[in-house]
Amino acid sequence: MARNGNSAEEAPSVIISIDFGTTFTKVAYVLLLADVKKQQHVIHSIEEWPGAMGEETSKGCPSMVKYEEDGSMKWGCEIDRYTEGRIEALKSLLDPTSKPPTYSSDMDSGDLRAKLGKPAVDIVSDFLRAVSEHALKSIASEYPEEFMEGLEKEFILTVPCGWPKEAKKSFLKAVVNTDISPVVLIPEPEAASIQAMNELDRKDWDAKAPFIICDAGGGTVHLVTCGVIEAEVEALVKATGGNFGSLMLNRKFHEHIEHAVGEQNWLKVLEAGALSHVIKMFDDQVKSKFPLMHGGDGDEILVCFPQAKLEDDLDKGLERSCLSVSRESLQGIFDSVVDEIDKLVKEQLETMKFTRLQELREGNGMWNEIGKVKTVILTGGFGNSDYLLQQLQLKNPRLSVVRVPEP
User: Fold this and answer.
1) The whole model's pTM is what?
2) pLDDT tens profile 188-214
3) Using CA atoms, how far apart are residues 28 and 46, in angstroms rounded to an integer?
4) Best mean pLDDT range from 127-131, 159-163, 376-380
5) What are phi and psi of 74, to 5 degrees?
6) Best CA proximity match to 9, nearest among 38, 30, 29
7) How far apart are the C-alpha atoms of 251 and 246, rounded to whole Å?
């Protein structure tokens, strides 16, 4: 229902932020009123997506598309990660140096692109166009028509840290090919730093000291050490990263289940179409809550395979088509991913030490004013994991590990 009481003169512009992620894409917007006294700068998130059901909307829409034989395109929540012919990890398609995340064993976007005859830039353009058009329709549904007609629009998109020039150029071309205009491109570390400064309590971190931005998303994790130099956020060392996002947990859980039930039972799981049900259960009931599992039976989870009719194997905890997975096994899955992220944190710390010594030897006096890293700032979907935050804090007791709250 449209909101009443505002005119186009009272709210002349809207800033729309598109967080184009490797696995999920989110959109948020803020209205800027002409009367500064009335400005509240309330951030609104787009939470309804075509084809979305239930809690899927809280993650945004999946960054993937599927082209039909008639040339039409399905995108986002209209398809899932088990839809044949899908093209996913769209963001990684723009970076020739990047390997697609390995959370989907049957993904071969390169072959699909070749078959379609579409370059990566055009595919990303199609997806971003669909996202932006949906966002504008969603915003328009909230306000009177005359209000929207006079509303100036500006888009903001972020660029990953460490992206090569060729990837940045392709991304800009993909954006230009859409109706997303005017647009401002902001480096992801700068965007995260600004949000941290606005949202975090200053007692939680020292903004004057260097800090590590850890952007932990669904498919990838990127880290870079930044500092505030003359009121500007600057990267102090080279960014690092890897395919250690939250969907790697899905992949490892998938592998654990496949190994535990055995080859013959696994074929039955696939034939029954039960895998998507199991992964959704892991997403909704385990991944977001681990390790806050209750005592007693909470020391394990029960994974059931509807209609698969598996053969019992009590030694492996498989009975009546349900598999018991222990807390120990789950922790092993989580730790295998968290440990890789911790390695990246330590790599940033070591690089900072080396860079400091090198710069001071070369007489760069600026580095006399740059102190030691004191804070790791978690952003991104996986950055919301309590387990990731707790483990990084335990493994790095000298640092303060904090999280940027999502809008």
Assistant:
1) 0.82
2) 877 887 777 777 666 666 767 899 999
3) 6
4) 127-131
5) -100, 150
6) 38
7) 9
How far apart (Å, rounded) are the C-alpha atoms in residues 202 and 2?
A: 38
CA-based torsion, 235, 236, 238, 243: positive or negative: negative
Q: ω into residue 397 within 30 of 0, thus cis?
A: no
Rounded to 5 degrees, what are φ and ψ at 14? Answer: -135, 135
Q: At CA 138, angle to CA 383 and CA 134, rounded to 5?
A: 80
Encode pLDDT of 360-407 as tens digits: 888 887 887 788 899 999 988 899 899 999 999 999 999 999 988 766
Contact 64, 58 (CB under 8 A): no
pLDDT band of 178, cuts 50, 70, 90: very high
Do residues 185 and 157 touch, judged by C-beta distance below 8 A? yes
Q: Which domains are seen in the chain, by residue range?
A: 13-181 (3.30.420.40), 202-407 (3.30.420.40)
Using CA of residue 324, residue 326, residue 331, residue 332, what is the dihedral sign? negative
Can you say whether the dihedral through the CA atoms of 339, 342, 346, 351 is positive or negative? positive
CA 173-175-177 angle, to 5 degrees, is 70
Element (H, E) at 28: strand 24-32
Contacts of 141 (CB under 8 A, 6+ apart): 2
Question: Strands 221-229, 211-216: parallel, antiparallel or unpaired by DSSP?
Answer: antiparallel
